[in-house]
Specification:
CATH architecture of the largest domain: Alpha-Beta Complex
Shape: globular
Number of helices: 6
CATH class of the largest domain: Alpha Beta
Order of helices and strands: EEHHEEEEEHHHHEEEEE
Structural class: alpha+beta
Helix content: 25-40%
Strand content: 25-35%
Radius of gyration: 17 Å
Number of strands: 12
Number of domains: 2
Length: 213
């Protein structure tokens, strides 16, 4: 019996592929890795991290075969002729989102029991008022939404509390804002649950509502 279960979700022009898995020995599945990926696999000391890496490559192989992941100038990953991709993982699951038209930022999370202790590090004052931050699930979703924005931001040094912001519009849609030095990016975000996994993805192109300051 295979330890892997595959599911597919469509959000606008983006497709999310999910691979849920039980315990397995990662070294038994190295045939799904390229030579470069095998080298990277051997650098991981933790078997859990090896398992997540192998599961993500099995998922990539299932969709694209042995095609290489390449990176645009802003750091966004893509696969030649298939468009932009984003990979995320959490306990027992990995996800791969792809979009032929624009960059995607996928994040997978399991509700965190210690999320309240982390809230002070990433919540803005407005988010504290706007959302029910005493609810662990809501707080985990905000964290997940900011991870999504981080992948879309295209830069490493970024402050989650003041430069990645989450809000809701009149229709209760989540809106993410990325504050850069000379411009602001805004994007609609979809966050939902599947088999107790919180999944977050941008619903549109992050460049669509950009403005200079």
């Amino acid at each position: 019996m295979t330890p892997f279960k595959f599911e597919k979700i469509q959000i606008n022009h983006s497709t999310i592929h999910i691979c849920s898995f039980n315990y397995f020995l990662p070294k038994r599945y190295l045939k799904y890795l390229s030579k470069e990926e095998t080298i990277r696999f051997n650098q991981f000391k933790s078997e859990n991290r090896q398992r997540e890496f192998v599961a993500s490559r099995i998922l990539k192989h299932r969709i694209f075969g042995f095609q290489y992941i390449e990176y645009a100038e802003n750091g966004a990953p893509y696969i030649e002729s298939h468009g932009f991709i984003s990979i995320s993982h959490c306990k027992g699951a990995v996800g791969l989102a792809c979009n032929k038209k624009h960059q995607v930022g996928l994040d997978l999370e399991i509700e965190r029991p210690n999320i309240q202790k982390l809230g002070a590090k990433f919540l803005s004052e407005k988010e504290r008022v706007k959302f029910d931050i005493k609810n662990d699930k809501v707080l985990t979703k905000i964290w997940s939404a900011k991870e999504c924005l981080y992948k879309l931001a295209g830069r490493k040094k970024i402050i989650f509390k003041t430069e990645l912001l989450i809000d809701m519009n009149q229709d209760s849609e989540w809106i993410g804002t990325i504050i850069n030095q000379d411009h602001v990016l805004s994007v609609k975000i979809d966050t939902f649950e599947l088999n107790e996994v919180i999944i977050t993805l941008n619903k549109e192109d992050v460049e669509k509502n950009s403005r200079y300051i």
